[in-house]
Every structure is written in C-alpha cells, then in structure tokens.
Amino acid sequence: MIKSRVLLAGALVLSSVGAAHADTFTVSPALVSDYDFRGITQTAKDPALQVGATYSADSGFYLGGWTSNLNFGPGDPKIELDLTTGFTWGDAKESAAYDAGIVYYTYVSKSDFNYPEVYFGVTKDWFNAKLFYSWDFGGLGQSAYYLSTTGTFPLPSDFALVAHAGYNGGDYWDKNYGNGYVDWSVGVTKAVGKFTVGVSFIDGSDLKDVPGKVFDTKSKVVATISTTLPWGKD
Q1: Domain range spanning residue 122?
Q2: In the chain, N or C: fewer CB atoms in 10 Å?
Q3: Beta strands in the chain (DSSP E)
Q4: pLDDT tens digits, residue range 174-189?
Q5: Under 8 Å CB-to-CB from 73, ≥6 apart: which residues?
Q6: Is residue 234 included in any domain, yes or no?
Q7: pTM, rounded to two decimals
Q8: Cβ partners under 8 Å of residue 74, min gap 6
Q9: Per-residue DSSP letters for 189-211?
C-alpha cells in the first residue's frame, strides 16, 4: 500500500510491479516498531499495527484501503484510514512499468486533517521513482510534493537490500518550516516462510525545528514483520 512507509513495504511493491495482471484480492497485515512517514514518526516512536487490503483487476486497475494507529499527542487522532485507487501498466523487466493514481488520507475523529494526493511512478528492474503531489496538504490549503527514489537489490538466501531517498518540497514546507527537506533510509529484508522481516535505518533530520517526541525526525532503526494473505501453496 501507498502509506506503508517502511522499507519492507517498498521492497514488496517493487517486486510486484510489472508482473502479469490478474483479478486478485489481498490483505497485508504488518507490525512495525515505529510508523515512519517520510522521515517523521507518526506514533512518537511507538509500535504500530498496520493492515492493507487491495483489489487488483486484470486490466491493471486497483482499489485499496490501509489503516494504522497513530500518536499525534493528546486529543489528536489515533487512527488513520487511507483510500487508494489507481492503474498500473507496462512491464518492469521488458521496458518499464508505470503506476498512477490518487490516495485520500483520512484521520478518524479529526476530519480537518484529511487531504488528497495524486501520484505517478515508474519502475525499471531494481529502480523505482515516484512523484506525489497534494494541493491541500494536511488539510491546510497549501501545496506540497514528494519525490521518492528507491533501489531494491536481491541478495543471497532470500535477503534484499533496499535503499531510499526522498525530497519533500512545496508551499507547505516553505511557509511552515522555511524550506523543504530530504529523508533517506537503508535496510535489509528477508523472506522467512510466509512472512517477510526487515530492519531499516531511517533519517529525516534534514527537517529542522520539529520539537518534541511526537513528530521526531531524528535517526532511528525500524523493525518490521509482515505477510500477504491469502497464502499460496509453496
């Protein structure tokens, strides 16, 4: 799912883009030691339980939902629910695969935080780049964009190395923080039976003047375990 910010999710998405389309419905639960969003903790560095569900049609159309617990401080929303629809086409191994769509981020009991974001991405072999844009970031009526680049490199024994760098820019960041910022991460994933486990080092400290623990941007190590249902036969 789009909102799953951990490197593990990036590796899973990249491995499937460009595969042959088929009508499928999948559910992907994950447990993470911290819910990170573009270098910023969304759970005050506490663990999160996250669940995504996606319907993918043979045509390349998909529709999904994703949810996670939050910690934005006292009185703020505790649950996030995102809705996504989009379309994929092409083949990452033959030439390139493409992905375009829209995600609507919603925050239970705090609807004034809700906002939309459109995206377009391209994948070629091990490399993925995706551009996100919102004209109402955080529900504040200010524009923001995010350029994401991710490389996934297979390693022996079902391991993979995943490296990521992203840039956050636009009016929202300029007006509220003085300028945009870079986040980056590097991590390793491993397939273990029906599950994938991962550990990654994530840093968003290029974003200055974010006080307190609630939206901390300092470097951290995030551990993840996830699976995708239904389980197929080995």
Answers
A1: 7-227
A2: C
A3: 24-32, 36-37, 40-41, 48-56, 61-69, 79-90, 97-107, 115-124, 127-134, 144-155, 159-169, 181-192, 195-203, 220-227
A4: 999 999 999 999 999 9
A5: 44, 214
A6: no
A7: 0.90
A8: none
A9: EEEETTEEEEEEEEE-TTS----
